[in-house]
From TrEMBL:
Protein source organism: Acrasis kona
This protein's record includes keyword Protein transport: no
UniProt cross-references to SUPFAM superfamilies, sorted A to Z: PLP-dependent transferases
Domain Aminotransferase class I/classII large per the UniProt entry, residue ranges: 81-444
Full protein name: 1-aminocyclopropane-1-carboxylate synthase
Region (Disordered): 1-25
Length: 458
């Protein structure tokens, strides 16, 4: 055995003492900075509510999930799995943007149920990734370079900014909708849209796209055909892309006076019928985003869909598709489901009926506790107003966003109820919160509301 000299031992010890742990990249620090609502999960998991073992635990009615028709979906999935055995092809790779069969099924479903058009919806215009988040992130990365902007009407879905900014450094430009207290609605005003764009350009900001959430998250509003047609024409005129996020397209209440209109329907009508109400574009600037998460209660399946006629965008999505592929087994199962028109029609009809009935009951709970809300026409949530509770709790005549944040902190840590607050949604009016009435039973919804009201009155 070779003997190690003392000076060699000293040298070895010194080298270890001088060792420095390698640092992570600068962008990793940006990755680790999450919105406040991302940290809520750890608070909930540390003290979860249980009716028997922990009745004073934290309750969450802030996640947009629909349990109302999960029984029907589970039964259908079991039927498909029993009827259709796994094939060896389901174990292999397929097209990264969706198998040919799955794209046919998605195009069929979009044509019949979302776009509701007589015109052809071709599978070659469809991209399927593992969730709408992946679709949104990669579409924005394809449309925007670093520090370029997408304009979004606010209040807006609270995770848009994270989805758009996290990895590719694209930016959100809120376009604050006008709140009309007379009709209790947030309204897209054409003059505000134009002014927001003009002011951004005057500041040197490069706005590359406009994103409309239709139906809206969090207000549950449905936009009329006229405003969608105007937005399509206006964005074409301004040289920016128009993106329509339609993930709640089939979650419309049976009582809604306003029918859902897809940008896909308008686009295909204009291309095929040369509608006199629309200017003539090639409509390659129009992109529709859809998902099976909300309308089909399949959050965990992670299926997001893009429909576009923009050839370069399609090629870009194909180039990055290998990072966002949906499992072949999921695609096979869902292909069988989406091609079953009888089931999809039954499921959608039942979902809409149950949504409407549950909304009516949830609204009654809010009325019982004197909590105002925007009357929705679609979705799984209610946009509610806690302004009077915040004023009472903080003993103030007027409140601002700091007060809203203080109230939200106390509601989570003291009342032990999680609802996302208005500032998460870029709402410029303090006091608004989003309540999801389909993610828990109505008895839990009432328990949450009562907890908040009792705590605010202490």
């Amino acid at each position: 055995m070779t003997k190690v000299r003392a000076d060699q031992e000293d040298c070895t010890a010194t080298s270890h003492e001088q060792f420095h742990k390698p640092e992570l990249s600068k962008r990793s620090h940006h990755f680790r900075v999450n919105p406040a609502f991302f940290g809520v999960k750890s608070v909930i998991m540390a003290d979860p509510y249980d009716a028997v073992s922990n009745p004073n635990g934290v309750l969450s009615i802030g996640v947009a999930h629909n349990i109302l028709v999960s029984d029907i979906m589970c039964e259908k999935i079991d039927q498909i799995n029993k009827k259709h055995k796994t094939d060896p092809v389901d174990l292999d790779y397929t097209d990264y943007t969706g198998s040919p069969q799955f794209k046919v099924a998605l195009a069929h479903m979009l044509k019949k149920h979302v776009f509701r058009t007589k015109h052809q919806v071709e599978p070659k215009h469809v991209v399927a990734f593992n969730g709408a988040v992946s679709i949104i992130e990669n579409v924005m990365a394809a449309l925007c370079d670093d520090n370029e902007y997408v304009m979004i009407p606010a209040p807006m879905y609270h995770a848009f900014e994270n989805d758009i900014n996290k990895r590719f450094n694209c930016r959100v430009l809120p376009m604050h909708m006008a709140y009309d207290p007379e009709i209790n609605e947030f309204v897209i005003d054409k003059s505000i849209a134009q002014r927001t764009l003009n002011q951004a350009r005057e500041k040197g900001l490069n706005v590359r796209a406009f994103l409309l959430c239709q139906p809206n998250n969090p207000t549950g509003d449905i936009y009329h055909r006229e405003i969608i047609e105007w937005l399509i024409d206006w964005t074409a005129k301004e040289g920016i892309h128009f993106i329509s996020d339609e993930v709640y397209a089939l979650s419309v209440f049976t009582s809604s006076p306003t029918p859902f209109i897809s940008a896909g329907e308008i686009m295909l009508e204009a291309l095929n019928e040369k509608s006199p109400s629309l200017r003539h574009h090639d409509y390659s600037h129009v992109h529709i985003i859809y998902s099976l998460s909300k309308d089909f209660t399949l959050n965990g399946f992670r299926v997001g869909v893009l429909y576009t006629h923009h050839i370069d965008l399609l090629e870009t999505m194909r180039a990055v598709g290998m990072y966002h592929e949906i499992s072949t087994q999921s695609q096979t199962l869902l292909t069988h489901m989406l091609l079953d028109d009888e089931f999809v029609e039954y499921f959608t009809k039942t979902n809409q009926e149950r949504l409407t009935n549950t909304y009516v009951q949830a609204a009654a709970i809010l009325d019982k506790y004197n909590i105002p809300f925007v009357k929705p026409n679609a979705g799984v949530f209610l946009w509610i107003n806690f302004e009077h509770l915040i004023r009472k709790k903080l003993k103030k005549q007027e409140i601002d966003m700091v007060d809203e944040k203080l109230f939200w902190d106390g509601m989570l840590l003291q009342a032990k109820v999680y609802l996302p607050a208005g500032h998460f949604f870029h709402c410029d009016i303090p006091g608004w919160f989003r309540l999801c009435f389909t993610c828990k039973s109505l008895s839990i919804v009432e328990t949450c509301v009562k907890r908040i009201v009792d705590w605010a009155n202490l």
